[in-house]
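Quick check before the chapter quiz. The format below is the same one you will see on the exam, so make sure you can read both the input and the output lines.
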Amino acid sequence: MKYDKKAIGKRIKEERIKAGFKSQGAFAEHMGYAYESRQTVANWEKGKTMPCFEDFFKMCEIFDCDYGYLMCEYDCKQRNRTDVQAVIGLSENAIKVLESINKSPYKEALESLSDIIEHKDFFKLLRSVHIHKFNFNRKMFKQFNTNIDSFADFFNCLPHEVSDYAKASSHSLIKNTIMKIVDDMK
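Here is the expected output.
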């Protein structure tokens, strides 16, 4: 496999910053080099040179990632997450949340989550949430606001009442779908 040194360097830089090392010098010191060796880190990050095998593994520990992630073979920090992400399409953070639930005192809650996902109305719930998110958190709601005055005139009410009703209807649909699923789980 041919590796892209610039992509690897960029990933090292991104992970260094995410790990809280604001300067290349501080990271060099943490890696066991003198602060003056920041140029070594700079060369890694520019893709001019690559760290030795030992340094790569040390970075994997610091960044809590697999070797293949640091080498840009895949885009999730852990290979098992990449497989899950590829199959079901959840973000890496969503997978981390599910993993943490599985290791927490709320582990039994995963059974309920499985029941919700397997429920016949789960797609209806997802669609309702998606529509609400799209309508009220995006431009479409702003476009809808331009017509609110005409709706308010037609129904002889204030514009904010039309807006509040639309939001409440959307919330109600989501709430009712959730409650139906939960009631069916009993």
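If your answer matched, good. The chain is about 75% helix and 0% strand.
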